[in-house]
Amino acid sequence: QVQLTESGGGLVQAGGSLRLSCAVSGITIKNYRMAWFRQAPGKEREFVAGVEWSGTYTYYGDSVKGRFTISRDNAKHLVALQMNSLKPEDTAVYYCGATSGYGHIMSMSGYNYWGQGTQVTVSS
Predict the structure, then answer these.
(1) Which segments within 1-124 are labelled E, that is strand?
(2) Contacts of 102 by beta carbon, 8 Å cutoff, 6+ apart
(3) pLDDT (tens digit, 0 to 9) for every residue of the chain, 124 residues total?
């Protein structure tokens, strides 16, 4: 059974930091590109950050570049998202996703598995 389990969400003041983790089981993580997406109330799910199989290449949404950092540890089956300088507009449910395909990493359509999400709330 494949499981992606997010943790680390919570309530933080603007300017603060949070570190999200995604624990992966049931798949060989090194065969998957991994990413974080987020969904705010009333909005579509959007790409936040992605990382290629070995972790060498990373990608970021324009709104988080320079503030967020994605990383992965294939040996520990973990993917992390370090979020700094948080803003109220970062408030959303954050989802971890895994894709075995070769399509655009920013496109939701290619993802095989998703976690249940973790809530991040940034107060002003």
Answers:
(1) 3-7, 10-13, 18-25, 33-39, 46-51, 58-60, 68-73, 78-83, 92-99, 113-114, 118-123
(2) none
(3) 999 999 999 999 999 999 999 999 999 999 999 999 999 999 999 999 999 999 999 999 999 999 999 999 999 999 999 999 999 999 999 999 999 989 899 999 989 999 999 999 999 9
Nearest-angstrom CA–CA distance, 19 and 44: 23
Residue indicated by tokens 């969400």: 9
Per-residue CA distances from 47 to 12, 34, 50, 86 (Å):
21, 11, 8, 16
Q: What would you report as the CA-atom Rg of the chain, rounded to the nearest whole angstrom?
A: 13
CA dihedral 74, 77, 82, 88 (to 10 degrees): 140
CB atoms within 10 A of CB 12: 17
Give the separation between CA 45 and CA 63, rounded to whole angstroms.
14
Collect all residues with Cβ–Cβ distance below 8 Å to 10 and sequence separation of at least 6.
18, 119, 120, 121
